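Continuing the batch. This is chain 6 of the set; chains 1 through 5 are on the previous pages. Same settings as before, nothing changed between runs. Recording input and output for traceability.
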Amino acid sequence: MYDRIKGFRDFYPGEMGARRETFDTVEETARRYGFREIGTPALERTQMYVDKSGEEIVEELYSFEDQGGRDVALTPELTPTVARMVVAKQQELSKPIKWFSTRPFWRYEEPQSGRKREFYQTNVDIFGSSEPESDAELLACAADALTGLGLTSEDFEFRVSHRDILGGLLEAFDADVDTEAAIRAVDKNEKVGEDEFYGLLSDAGLSYEQAREFDDLLDTPEDELDDLVAFAETERVEEAVANLTEVLDAAADFGAREYCTLSLDTARGLDYYTGVVFECFDSTGDVNRSIFGGGRYDDLIEGFGGQPTPAVGFAVGDATLSLLLQRAGVWPDEELSTDYYVLQVGDTRDVAAEVTRDLRGEGHVVETDVSGRSFGAQLDYADSIGAETVVIVGEQDLADGNVTVKDMTSGDQTQVPVEEFPPEDVSRPTYDDFE
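Output for chain 6:
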């Protein structure tokens, strides 16, 4: 007997069906927005992640030397891969490039609620547009995907910020500040206490009083953002405030503004973010971690050797999204369901097979006996798979030119001429059509 590896999951049919329905909804939403599906490899060269994040990243990877002597890693995220793909065919691709994909990723870290060593994400990205409309379109796409899953504005919110506002405010202090370290501290703000937060800002170069003043600035309401411009007195903050305002205005036109809340505490810890960033949270607070997030990363393509190319994207993870859907009571039903079970009694395989083929040809989910079971065993199995209708093909009925159509909920059944089943004028024939 073998145990499952820690941090990895098995998905049995009921749960997998609910997961598939969830992924299908997110993907179909992306398709409606014009995003095209791509496929990407499970392995990349380890050096790609080292160049992006430093040598310490190796400790968080499933990395190894393959039989060809290459240092490779199971992909922990998609962004470097799609950046590599854009660079490889940058001149051939029409702009803006709008891609999505759903696939597994791997990170060697301690498993916890909503965070596994193997996890699945749907990534949605736009390359080649720096306009605020592209940021807003992603917010709208994400919102439509969540509402398509049955959530409402009472269930989730997008906390929206801008990295250049944070960076510009930090630069305005009379101190030698490690801006990236300070922004990473902001990203941890809600996970740590005030003293620890100020300590992290102090480690990044701010004094205690400056840290307190910076923290107060993060509470600036949306209608007073001009106060931040006045405080910093830099074009960086002025342009960032203008860009953030333009994105939120566009989000209003695209139908996503009601889900967006200004939150300068939202920073996104990854260093490659450059502009507007956002994170999705459970509005009730019951799921006490970010559901997913995204933002703008305009410098990444150039960093991978390509031409300067603005980019923005988000990634929805399966583990945290399922927690939100379950909390809100809209997780898809995990009960198995089958449209028809074609039950065989006696030497009737040829007719039963023809009925099965005809029903499947109409696009229905159909099972029939492949185990040589008795009448009762077949009926029990049909019940276990949630069959709505059972079509009984028995020797005695066929001798009279009939099959029996049985409703599994009520138990009612009736005979139908075998030549008339399934009927041509009924797309989904059930007992009620012949009663």
